[in-house]
Amino acid sequence: MTTTENGVPKKALLRQLSFLDRFLVLWILLAMVMGVLIGYYVPGVQESFETVQFASVSVPIAIGLLVMMYPVLCKVQYEKLPSILMTKQVWIQMAISIVLNWIVGPIIMTGLAWATLPDLPEFRTGVVMVGLARCIAMVFIWNHLAGGDPDYCAMLVCINSILQIALFSPYSVLFINIIPSWFGAPTDTAINVDIWPVAQSVLIYLGIPLAAGLVTRFAFLSTMGRAWYEKNFLPYVGPWALIGLLYTIVVMFANQGHEIIEHIGSVFRVAVPLFVYFILMFFIPFFGLKAMGMPYDLVVTQSFTAGSNNFELAIAVAVGTYGIRSEQALAATIGPLIEVPVLLVLTYVALMLQKKMNWSNRSPHLTVRKDEESH
């Protein structure tokens, strides 16, 4: 009988999964279809969402993302982060993440956009903007489902979020206007992205759930104890993450369902560079870091951090710069339409490859954790 690393039969482990976890693929597909149908057939849906905004941030989407991220961030062992930051390994991981997210990713997305959309400059601009916005939300879900390291994931997301505030605006100008002009290609309308909307997006989508998770963890650990927190509280809030994910998908797709169906031909065109991008940005670090001998949980964390994108920011900036009815905004909206199912499939691919490769799942700091907990 096949067993897990803990000696538990895998069929028994599957039966222990909640109804929501066991059929997650089905629920996500249904949420996507429901969202598109609502957006197309229910009149005034998009206008209703436009009235519920805080600056450039969509309140309905923000609520879903906050609910989705909160349970995952409650699991991060913030009390261990100072000791983890003292290790050489964590700085190596941060350096790898910075290279993948701020050098490799933008170059690959820009190259794919120009190679596949040479005759659609507005859609091309939207695709490039998706590539420049590094993920700060859904990466926690994919990393959690695939068995990645939550502590490293939190640190990598935080460092990329700080860089996103500083780099998204100049990167937009560089990759949309300047670099194409070097090759004599016509560029899109000049883009000028202010730093504050980017910072505002990061603070809301990451800062609020991160602060909530940190305060919750320290408050309950000090008052109720670790055993109660891990056996009672975390199992209680755990399902919120997937519920928040499904809600976010419905809202997001309902918001652009009409535009997606009305421009279905362009949707398929834009899907090509996005699909190739997500596959490349996942498997380049996945197999590259595996060849370097890194453990599975760190490799999968790097892969999803590199392969995910902050579609909320890309959509908000595209809408603010070009208008909500623009082709740039539509292209940015297609980003999650492709990203969600592709990265969901990649979570199962990662778990399958871990099993087939007999891959160890032991981060450098896990041994320290176990020693400390045994005392």
From TrEMBL:
Keyword Transmembrane helix attached: yes
Parts of the chain that traverse the membrane: 23-42, 54-73, 94-117, 123-142, 154-182, 202-221, 233-254, 274-292, 304-324, 330-353
GO biological process: response to arsenic-containing substance
GO MF terms held by the record: antimonite transmembrane transporter activity; antiporter activity; arsenite transmembrane transporter activity
Membrane topology listed for this record: Multi-pass membrane protein
Subcellular location: Cell membrane
One Pfam assignment: SBF
The entry's keywords: Arsenical resistance, Cell membrane, Membrane, Transmembrane, Transmembrane helix, Transport
InterPro entries: Arsenical-R_Acr3, BilAc:Na_symport/Acr3, Na+/solute_symporter_sf
Principal localisation: membrane
Cellular component GO terms, alphabetical: plasma membrane
Family that this chain belongs to: Belongs to the arsenical resistance-3 (ACR3) (TC 2.A.59) family.
Protein name: Arsenical-resistance protein
